[in-house]
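Lecture 7 notes: from sequence to structure.

We start with a single chain of 338 residues. Read the sequence below before looking at the structure.
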Amino acid sequence: MRALPTDVFGRHSRDLRISVTDRCNFRCIYCMPKTTYGAGYPFLARRALLSFEEITLIARVLIGMGVRKIRLTGGEPLLRREIERLVEMLAALPGLSDLSLTTNGACLTRAKAQALRDAGLKRLTMSLDALDDQTFSAMNDVGFPVSRVEEALSNAANVGFPPAKINMVVKRGVNDHSIVPMARRFRGTGHILRFIEYMDVGTSNGWRLDEVVAGAAIVDIIHREWPLAPVSPNYPGEVASRWKYQDGQGEVGIITSVTQPFCGHCTRVRLSAEGRLYTCLFASEGHDLRYLVRGGAADDYIAQAIAAIWSRRHDRYSERRSAETAALPRIEMSYIGG
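Now the structure, written as tokens:
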């Protein structure tokens, strides 16, 4: 099988994000606001979703082309029934070095955590945007309490998962006052808190630049409480800049898609729940692989199609972000995965 070529700007792909559903039980204001995703919203029909076997086939092809990391996303991936069966199928693929999943924690019971761990899932990332229920509820917009996320973290730890990555999207005037409390809560726990700039993914979240808290400002806020020092990336293409506490109490990550874009070394390719391949989080359109898979195409033929797509890749939306690009159509984050 052919190796995945570099794209127009010489970028490789080693990181596959797989969205297993476009549904979510939260209505976060930066992702799935109720004004768009209200009652009666036309989510994908079950027959439109890739089966676990179809997902595994495409993943196998991409691993054969050089992909080494897979993250399962959504929507909320734990809403997909028997997701642990997909985890088991993916974990068995030769050549895969890392398999993780991002969740809001609402469905992560002790039993579900155990099933995922037994199936071969290596790591979890959880979303938590504040520590007080009033603010967190304002962000998730379904009244979900912080205690349930804390319970999910405990469930994961109790079945042997390593410390999680905790994602916090920061929106000015909504939860930016929670930066220091969140840092205080996760210092010294082994969990890695990652602050994410509020991004213009999709078009439904009403994004405005003046609601973005720059990553540099977040670092300054934390540094005033607990001095930080920069840390080298764990691997090429890592999107979060790493900062360690100088007193040895762990580290934080900062994801700065808006103020300090990292398009130049982006290695990610994304597969939607209905089988469309996307080469950028801010893409306007994807490439249909489902028809190839359901049409019985051989692995080599699918690999050729993917290679052709990637070799033409010229995405660098965040580096080009402007009033002009803001008017372009974009795929919603709930559909493509974060």
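The radius of gyration is 19 Å. Keep this in mind for problem set 3.
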